[in-house]
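To illustrate the input format used throughout this study, we show a single complete record. The first block contains the structure-token representation of the backbone; no residue identities are included at this stage. The design step must infer an amino acid for every position from geometry alone.
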């Protein structure tokens, strides 16, 4: 079974053009699919539709044959900002979703400690959120997302507010976690390098109208080396394709 996006369009009230038009995509279990494209192409909108935070104007999205009509525990979203609760410490933030779902306290504690250890934050479990760095907060948010044991993890530019060094550390950790858990991931990014690093495939999106322009399978061996010849060549190919879409945006704006 899989995540299927079938002929999906999204039109906002009073908008002159659809943000997404006739988008179709299938994501198989265990895939790490990266969405890239210029600003305004509908990457985050598509992620919100998969999450059930918004509904399509046309078409439908199904997960394992069941149509998505709203948020659900089978899909968890990790946003650009960690969205942690400052009045709770680290471990209580990680437990929050499980507690809301009515999970037993013992199971909450076991899962929270498992994933805090996985993201190297177990020793910080009793820290206040204000005592954590930006990268540590994103790790806590990732641990919280993983504890829900959802079928699909949706990530919307989770590294955008972080410095380069922190991004690189988190990138390596997320790849290791994905390889260990084999979760299905849909990842929105502006970085072609990130997309090639993570992706089992990269979905290039464009504007006017917003939609998929090309799906590029990524078959590089893991762990991936960003300075390898194959990596550099593939990144250059995708950057060339992306540049054409960015130029379209510039012409429209001019």
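Output of the design step:
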């Amino acid at each position: 079974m899989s995540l299927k996006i079938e002929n999906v369009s999204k039109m906002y009230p009073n908008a002159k053009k659809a943000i997404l038009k006739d988008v179709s995509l299938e994501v198989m279990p265990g895939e790490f699919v990266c969405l890239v494209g210029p600003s305004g192409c509908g990457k985050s909108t598509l992620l919100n539709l998969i999450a059930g935070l918004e509904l399509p104007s046309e078409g439908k999205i199904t997960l394992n044959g069941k149509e998505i009509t709203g948020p659900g525990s089978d899909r968890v979203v990790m946003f650009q900002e960690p969205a942690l609760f400052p009045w709770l410490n680290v471990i209580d933030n990680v437990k929050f979703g499980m507690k809301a779902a009515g999970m037993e306290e013992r199971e909450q504690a076991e899962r929270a400690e498992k994933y805090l250890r996985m993201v190297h934050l177990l020793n910080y479990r009793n820290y206040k959120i204000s005592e954590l760095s930006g990268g540590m907060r994103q790790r806590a948010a990732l641990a919280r997302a993983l504890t829900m044991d959802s079928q699909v993890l949706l990530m919307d530019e989770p590294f955008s507010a972080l410095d380069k060094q922190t991004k690189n550390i988190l990138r390596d950790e997320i790849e290791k976690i994905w390889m260990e858990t084999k979760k299905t991931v849909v990842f929105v990014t502006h970085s072609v390098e990130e997309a090639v690093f993570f992706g089992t495939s990269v979905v290039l999106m464009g504007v006017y109208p917003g939609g998929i322009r090309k799906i590029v399978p990524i078959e590089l061996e893991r762990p991936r080396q960003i300075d390898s010849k194959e990596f550099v060549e593939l990144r250059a190919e995708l950057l060339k394709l992306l540049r054409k879409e960015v130029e379209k945006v510039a012409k429209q704006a001019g």
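Structural context for interpreting the output: The first strand starts at residue 3 and ends at 10. DSSP finds seven helices and ten strands in the chain.
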